[in-house]
Write a structure and sequence with these properties.
- The protein is an alpha+beta fold.
- Helices cover 41% and strands 16% of the residues.
- The longest helix has 30 residues, at 436-465.
- The radius of gyration is 37 Å and the shape is elongated.
- The termini are far apart.
- The site of adenosine-5'-triphosphate (ATP) has 20 residues, from helix 2 and helix 3.
């Protein structure tokens, strides 16, 4: 066979400098491309064998070998797959492979912004020219009597092709590396790349360092993947022990060709799932649970999604979803394929129907990709709601870890929310997990009970004192009727239909619900800081939900939006009626006068002109002062903080909303009321204010310093 010289049909002078520039950040993908080609070549031959067209010797073992030669500065990829005849090299390499590179060039030649170039654009065989000045192919086709072929090119548009010397079936591609790419002949660098892209390739891959002493090479091989693979490609601990002796002699593949996700879920053990998780994600903490995806129709998709334990130390929610196509790694966290909220999980997804050269821009509007994403989201919702129904105990155990993820999913994906919304639970003050419906039911019951009690008490008082205040009585009975009705009325009203009881059911028919008709759902964001309020709540027999995660604020806003009859209110937003003593009319007058006097005094002492002060008779006599901050103001302030609008005056959005509540039942408050002008009163006022503030939020540094100094002064007074 004579040597053929030719010119690749390309209009551009030399595309390689351009390819290099565009793919600069992802040079290492040439390894994936060449090994994928080798793997395809083996698959093709296996198919021919199944079809009865090719005869493969019984002792044949398919494999791919990657050989680096740091002295020669080469890297070599060889396989014992289908191989190529001269005609095939002409067609597949000179025409098809090159036209792939040409297409790439045409598509991107006018783009000036490197970000627009997708790092994972598969260039196939020609990606080898990103790192090599010269590339050779030595190949021998599987076909009987085929002649070996040698092909080489120095990266321009010229190539040389002639009869080769290869004696074994398959293909060997050698890259003579460019000076700036010598790293790809370095053993550790190449092993790192192989680990990234090829850990689960479907055929065994061996690594050889042509310059390493034989023993050393074997030892180095062992550390690339922790799992030992036996003859059937099965990873096993036992295999490890049994084959220990052989292992020393036999080189080990660097990959696991039978990853767990490819097995049927029924054939996988719990320990295998955990081991796979440790190997792939290097997470020393065990996953909470996992979902094994296994779908053949209408598309092919396999994978395992793990729910990791949240790292509370950093509150980090960074997941990692590795995407594969036929066991070849494509990329991490491709958000077009995997719903965004699932990025908080850790897992592997293998979808052979996805092309290797995943171009993100092409995926964005792809209906097929959207279907994959919807399927994954549905599977996750099904698993979680199934757990809620049949494994409630486990579900509750995992709830704190999985709830940020579920809530994020609800915020991001309407379909997911619809499927999961009835399985959302909340921890209450007793540490029990309840649904919102259960909370609302209990709250309504409690409200009705309180009203009834109050009415009873009033009736008793009235009969003892024989004092009748017609206005009060009328109002209180009306209120009682209304609330008891709200709690007890179970009539199935049609939208807007009168139920005959005179109660307003306007909220039942989708109209805007009046503020006073909403059920308040109290919540705690910081159990330590809000402990004073928690104690008051517990004493009053009230319940609240613990919502401490950052995601909770946007989440409850969404719940309120979805269910207009509900209003979330932080536990310190107001002093509820349950905390206050019933006050008679004349007492109310006294409280009003005291409120006026204390407002004046505290504003003067604290230098806060706009401070709201209220004097109330709180049932809990141990509480002296409390600060409340209206829910609206607090949410506004939080939003401003979130959007870095710090320093802006919250008053511009309708008042600071902060109120200092003084308990008229506390001795210290009584002292201030009766000794407004005494020497120590200003100090007591400041201390009462700071103490109230402390159980609400942390003090500013300056205020904290003053608080500590003042506390010392107070102790000095005691010491006198
Ligand atoms: N190791 C190999 N053994 C046999 N044939 C090969 C080998 N490498 C490449 N080929 C042939 O050359 C063709 C072109 O390869 P190239 O990698 O450029 O494109 P591709 O694999 O078809 O597509 P992709 O862009 O997805 O890689 C292949 O389709 C295949 O027929």
């Amino acid at each position: 066979m004579s040597t053929e010289r030719g010119s690749l049909s390309i209009h551009s002078e030399n595309i390689f400098p351009i390819i290099k520039k565009w793919l600069y950040s992802d040079h290492d993908i040439f390894v994936r491309e060449l090994i994928s080609n080798a793997s395809d070549a083996i698959t093709k031959l296996k198919k021919l064998e199944i079809m009865g067209e090719a005869n493969i010797p019984e002792d044949n073992k398919f494999k791919i070998t990657v050989t680096v030669n740091p002295e020669e500065k080469t890297i070599r990829f060889s396989d014992n797959g289908i191989g190529m005849t001269m005609e095939e090299v002409k067609e597949y390499i000179n025409q098809i492979a090159f036209s792939g590179a040409q297409k790439f060039l045409e598509k991107y030649k006018d783009k000036t912004n490197e970000d627009q170039i997708i790092g994972h654009f598969g260039l196939g065989f020609y990606s080898s020219f990103m790192v090599a000045g010269k590339v050779t192919i030595d190949t021998l086709s599987w076909q009987p009597n085929a002649a070996p072929v040698h092909w080489e090119s120095e990266g321009g548009t010229e190539y040389e092709m002639g009869e080769g010397t290869r004696t074994e079936r398959g293909t060997e591609i050698t890259l003579y590396l460019n000076e700036d790419s010598y790293e790809f002949s370095n053993e550790y660098r190449v092993k790192e790349i192989l680990k990234k892209y090829c850990s689960f390739m479907p055929f065994e891959i061996y690594f050889v360092n042509a310059n390493a002493p034989v023993e050393e090479e074997k030892e180095a091989d062992e550390d690339i993947i922790d799992t030992t693979v036996d003859e059937d490609g099965k990873a096993s601990e036992d295999g490890k022990a049994d084959n220990k002796a052989n292992e020393k002699k036999k080189p080990q593949p660097i990959n696991n060709p039978n990853p767990l996700w490819a097995k049927h879920p029924n054939d996988c053990t719990e320990e295998e799932y955990k081991e796979f998780y440790r190997d792939v994600f290097h997470d020393y903490k065990e996953p909470l649970f996992w979902i094994h995806l296994n779908m053949d129709y209408p598309f092919n998709l396999k994978g395992i999604l793990y729910f990791p334990k949240i790292n509370t130390e950093y509150d980090s929610l960074e997941g990692l979803i590795k995407l594969y196509s036929n066991q070849v790694f494509i990329a991490d966290n491709i958000k077009e394929v995997i719903p965004e909220f699932l990025m908080l999980l850790k897992g592997v997804i293998d979808c052979p129907d996805l092309p290797l050269n995943v171009s993100r821009s092409a995926l964005q509007n792809d209906g097929f990709v959207k279907k994959i994403s919807d399927y994954i989201s549905k599977k996750v919702a099904d698993k979680l709601s199934g757990m809620y129904k049949v494994e409630r105990e486990n579900y509750e155990k995992y709830w704190d870890d999985i709830s940020p993820f579920i809530k994020f999913g609800c915020l991001k994906d309407d379909k997911f929310r619809d499927k999961i919304k009835d399985s959302i639970i909340y921890k209450n003050l007793e540490g029990k997990y309840i649904t919102l419906a259960e909370y609302v039911e209990a709250a309504k019951g409690k409200k009705a009970e309180d009203k009834e009690e109050a009415a009873d008490k009033k009736n008793k008082d009235e009969s003892v004192n024989e004092v009748t205040d017609a206005d009060t009585k009328e109002a209180s009975v009306d209120e009682k009727d209304k609330d008891v009705h709200a709690a007890e009325c179970t009539h199935d009203h049609e939208h807007g239909e009168e139920c005959g009881c005179g109660h307003d059911h306007s909220q039942d028919n989708g109209e805007e619900v009046k503020e006073e008709d909403k059920t308040l759902v109290y919540y705690v964001t910081d159990e330590k800081q809000q402990s004073q309020y928690i104690n008051m709540f517990k004493e009053a027999g009230l319940d609240a939900l613990i919502l401490t995660h950052n995601i909770d604020q946007p989440f409850i806003t969404q719940v309120e939006y979805q269910d207009q009859k509900i209003k979330f209110q932080r536990i310190d937003a107001d002093i509820t009626d349950s905390f206050k003593e019933e006050t008679k009319k004349k007492d109310q007058k006294v409280l009003k006068n005291n409120t006026d006097a204390m407002t004046k005094l505290f504003r003067k002492v604290l230098g806060k002109e706009k401070l709201e002060v209220k004097v109330e008779k709180l049932k809990n006599e141990k509480v002296s002062s409390v600060i409340t901050l209206s829910e609206e103001s607090r949410r506004m302030q939080e939003m401003m903080r979130m959007y870095s609008m710090n320093g802006m005056d919250p008053n511009m959005f309708g008042g600071g909303g902060e109120t200092l509540v003084l308990n008229a039942n506390h001795k210290l408050v009584q002292y201030v009321i009766t000794n407004e002008n005494s020497e120590n009163t200003p100090m007591i006022c400041e201390q009462l204010y700071d103490l109230a503030l402390l159980s609400h939020k942390s003090l500013e540094p300056e205020a904290m310093t003053k608080f500590v100094q003042r506390s010392n002064e107070i102790m000095m007074l005691l010491a006198k």
